[in-house]
Amino acid sequence: METIWLGGAEWLAVLRIGLGLWWLESWRHKDKRTWFEGAGIEWAAGVAEKHRWGAVRSGFDVVVKPRAKAMAYVVAYAELALGLGLILGFLTPVALVAGLLLNLLYLVLMIHDWAEQGQNSMMALISVVGLFGMSWQSWSVDSALGLF
């Protein structure tokens, strides 16, 4: 593989780090106080209750709604963990798969919002490329420790 400036492994690391920064920004821009008081989950509940797919409505009601406060923390700190893990390249394959799953969940919930579809589909695509391109080969804690 020929590239300009960096090698293929380094370009994949750039892509991985960029995705990590995107996840970190998803965490950073949240108003944590209102998010943890339930605003984020209330917003998602409103989206879920109008969703045309019954499985999304009932799944949200069974899994998320009874645990709204805990789920607010899970979502926010999952975004933080994904961001840091991808930027540092620590447990990278785990972070890429977890991020892909989170993006797919967001994508399904927000299937009718074109802006969210674009963001989540692009983040999911980068996760797939990072995973199958083994983006932890360069500039990562995984590489330094000989993991994966």
* CA-atom Rg in angstroms: 17 Å
| Helix-and-strand structural type | mainly alpha
Mean residue pLDDT: 93
What is the tally of beta strands? 0
Query: Percent of residues in helical segments?
Result: over 70%
* Multimerization state: single chain
Low-confidence stretches: none
**Distance from first to last alpha carbon:** 22 Å
How would you sum up the major sheet? none
Tell me the number of helical segments per DSSP (H or I, 4 or more residues long): 8
| String of helices and strands | HHHHHHHH
Briefly characterize the structure.
The chain has 148 residues and is mainly alpha-helical. It has eight helices and no strands. The mean pLDDT is 93.
Explain how this protein is built.
- By secondary structure, the chain is mainly alpha-helical.
- The two termini are 22 Å apart.
- The radius of gyration is 17 Å and the shape is elongated.
- The longest helix has 21 residues, at 8-28.
- The chain has helices at residues 8-28, 32-36, 39-49, 54-64, 68-88, 92-109, 114-132, 141-145.
- The protein is built from 8 helices and no strands.
- Helix 1 packs antiparallel against helix 7 (114-132) and helix 6 packs antiparallel against helix 7 (114-132).
